[in-house]
């Protein structure tokens, strides 16, 4: 699915076909209310996965809410409400990350840059839960946007097919990336020297 940019608000909105009568009968506010009631907590977790700084995270969450509301002006029902909301949210979050002037690309990792872990033994159980969660979020924040998008959707219980629908990749490609990201994260959790 392609995207367009609303020149008035600079919001990135997935392109949509002309709306059906049933879809347009609902107002933008009705769609937004339903979306936030169903996915509001997930959007907050998504913002946490993209932004570590609390003030900037709140700004990102607000930008996501605005983008979701604005996107319902062109929502046509071709995909599920869940897919639409996540697609808009991830486009907005990715735009946020890419526009951050403080971002250092060399600190982010692609899956190809990271070697497979040599020791498959699981030592996650030895770490305290809060320390593990903090380390996991730190590792996720260091991933490039597409990999971050995939793992955050996976953590929200999206199937590989549903993730592929949101990010525009095949379910086979998504499954491979999830496997590699999980290994990368497990390796980073085990390595106490990693941030």
Structure commentary:
The chain has two domains: 97 residues, Rna Polymerase Sigma Factor, Chain: A, CATH 1.10.1740; 86 residues, Orthogonal Bundle (Arc Repressor Mutant, subunit A). 60% of the residues lie in helices and 4% in strands. The protein contains eight helices and two strands; from the N terminus they run E-E-H-H-H-H-H-H-H-H. A hairpin with a 4-residue loop joins strand 1 and strand 2.
Q: What profile does the largest beta sheet have?
A: 2 strands, antiparallel
Domain count, please report it.
2
Proportion of beta-strand residues: under 5%
H/E topology pattern: EEHHHHHHHH
How is the quaternary structure best described? single chain
Structural class: mainly alpha
Low-confidence stretches at least 5 residues in length (pLDDT < 50)? Answer: 1-9, 15-19, 122-127
Per DSSP E runs of 2 or more residues, the count of β-strands stands at 2
Kindly report the average pLDDT value: 78
CATH class of the largest domain: Mainly Alpha
Q: CATH architecture of the largest domain, please?
A: Orthogonal Bundle
How are the strands ordered across the major sheet? 1-2
Query: What overall geometry do the principal axes of the alpha carbons give?
Result: globular
Radius of gyration: 18 Å
CATH topology of the largest domain: Rna Polymerase Sigma Factor, Chain: A
